[in-house]
Amino acid sequence: MRVELLWWDGCPSHPQALRELRDVLSTEGLDPDLVEQRHIDSDEQAERERFLGSPTILVDGRDIVPAAGEPVGLGCRVYRLRDGRPSPTPDPADVRDAVRAAR
Protein backbone atom coordinates (compact mmCIF):
# COMPACT_ATOMS: atom_id res chain seq x y z
CA MET A 1 0.00 0.00 0.00
CA ARG A 2 1.28 3.45 -0.90
CA VAL A 3 0.18 6.32 1.33
CA GLU A 4 1.08 9.88 0.34
CA LEU A 5 0.49 13.24 1.96
CA LEU A 6 0.74 16.09 -0.53
CA TRP A 7 1.11 19.51 1.01
CA TRP A 8 1.92 23.15 0.31
CA ASP A 9 3.80 25.24 2.84
CA GLY A 10 1.32 28.11 2.56
CA CYS A 11 -1.26 26.00 4.34
CA PRO A 12 -0.76 25.36 8.06
CA SER A 13 -2.90 22.19 8.40
CA HIS A 14 -0.55 19.59 6.94
CA PRO A 15 1.15 18.74 10.30
CA GLN A 16 -2.28 18.00 11.80
CA ALA A 17 -3.20 15.89 8.76
CA LEU A 18 0.06 13.95 9.09
CA ARG A 19 -0.60 13.25 12.79
CA GLU A 20 -4.16 12.11 12.11
CA LEU A 21 -3.06 9.96 9.16
CA ARG A 22 -0.33 8.30 11.21
CA ASP A 23 -2.82 7.68 14.04
CA VAL A 24 -5.17 5.89 11.63
CA LEU A 25 -2.35 3.80 10.18
CA SER A 26 -1.19 2.82 13.66
CA THR A 27 -4.72 1.95 14.78
CA GLU A 28 -5.07 -0.22 11.67
CA GLY A 29 -1.88 -2.09 12.55
CA LEU A 30 0.22 -0.43 9.85
CA ASP A 31 3.53 1.36 10.15
CA PRO A 32 2.80 5.07 10.68
CA ASP A 33 6.10 5.89 8.96
CA LEU A 34 4.66 4.43 5.75
CA VAL A 35 3.52 7.94 4.80
CA GLU A 36 5.41 9.53 1.91
CA GLN A 37 5.33 13.32 2.25
CA ARG A 38 5.44 15.30 -0.97
CA HIS A 39 5.81 19.05 -0.99
CA ILE A 40 4.00 20.79 -3.85
CA ASP A 41 5.74 24.10 -4.48
CA SER A 42 4.67 25.46 -7.86
CA ASP A 43 1.57 25.92 -9.96
CA GLU A 44 3.15 23.72 -12.62
CA GLN A 45 3.71 20.89 -10.16
CA ALA A 46 0.18 21.34 -8.80
CA GLU A 47 -1.18 20.96 -12.32
CA ARG A 48 0.94 17.86 -13.04
CA GLU A 49 -0.09 16.24 -9.76
CA ARG A 50 -3.77 17.29 -10.05
CA PHE A 51 -3.25 18.81 -6.60
CA LEU A 52 -6.56 20.02 -5.16
CA GLY A 53 -5.00 21.79 -2.21
CA SER A 54 -3.18 21.16 1.01
CA PRO A 55 -3.38 18.69 2.56
CA THR A 56 -4.27 15.95 0.09
CA ILE A 57 -4.00 12.29 1.07
CA LEU A 58 -3.61 9.61 -1.56
CA VAL A 59 -3.85 5.88 -0.93
CA ASP A 60 -2.53 3.83 -3.83
CA GLY A 61 -2.69 6.96 -5.98
CA ARG A 62 -6.33 7.75 -5.21
CA ASP A 63 -7.54 10.80 -3.34
CA ILE A 64 -9.28 9.57 -0.19
CA VAL A 65 -11.93 12.28 -0.61
CA PRO A 66 -12.41 12.75 -4.36
CA ALA A 67 -13.48 16.25 -5.27
CA ALA A 68 -14.63 16.25 -8.86
CA GLY A 69 -14.72 19.66 -10.46
CA GLU A 70 -12.55 21.37 -7.86
CA PRO A 71 -9.73 23.52 -9.25
CA VAL A 72 -6.14 22.38 -8.96
CA GLY A 73 -3.51 24.69 -7.54
CA LEU A 74 -1.68 25.93 -4.50
CA GLY A 75 -4.13 26.60 -1.72
CA CYS A 76 -5.67 25.23 1.44
CA ARG A 77 -8.15 22.44 1.04
CA VAL A 78 -11.41 22.41 2.99
CA TYR A 79 -13.01 19.09 3.88
CA ARG A 80 -16.41 18.24 5.32
CA LEU A 81 -16.54 16.05 8.37
CA ARG A 82 -19.21 13.38 8.38
CA ASP A 83 -21.38 15.57 10.58
CA GLY A 84 -21.22 18.35 7.97
CA ARG A 85 -18.80 20.71 9.68
CA PRO A 86 -15.94 22.17 7.60
CA SER A 87 -12.45 21.02 8.51
CA PRO A 88 -8.88 21.69 7.32
CA THR A 89 -8.22 17.94 7.39
CA PRO A 90 -10.28 14.96 6.23
CA ASP A 91 -12.54 13.11 8.63
CA PRO A 92 -10.48 10.33 10.26
CA ALA A 93 -13.31 7.91 9.40
CA ASP A 94 -12.78 8.71 5.70
CA VAL A 95 -9.05 8.08 6.11
CA ARG A 96 -9.73 4.79 7.87
CA ASP A 97 -12.19 3.67 5.19
CA ALA A 98 -9.68 4.42 2.42
CA VAL A 99 -6.92 2.50 4.21
CA ARG A 100 -9.19 -0.47 4.83
CA ALA A 101 -10.38 -0.51 1.21
CA ALA A 102 -6.77 -0.54 0.00
CA ARG A 103 -5.89 -3.54 2.12
List keywords for this structure.
alpha+beta, four-stranded mixed beta sheet, 6 strands
3D structure, described in words:
This protein is an alpha+beta fold and 103 residues long. The chain has one domain (3-102). The protein is 31% helix and 19% strand. The protein has three helices and six strands. The chain has a four-stranded mixed beta sheet, with helices on one face. Strands 5-6 form a two-stranded antiparallel sheet. The mean pLDDT is 95.
Q: What's the count of strands?
A: 6
What structural category do the secondary elements indicate? alpha+beta
Q: Report the end-to-end length measured between terminal Cα atoms.
A: 7 Å
Overall residue-averaged pLDDT value:
95
The number of helical elements comes to 3
Any idea how many domains? 1
Helix content: 25-40%
Q: Give the overall shape.
A: globular
Order of SSEs: EHEHEEEEH
Strand content: 15-25%
Radius of gyration: 13 Å
> Taking strands numbered 1, 2, ... along the chain, how are they ordered across the largest sheet?
2-1-3-4
Spans of 5+ residues with little confidence (pLDDT < 50)?
none
Describe the sheet with the most strands.
4 strands, mixed
Oligomer: single chain
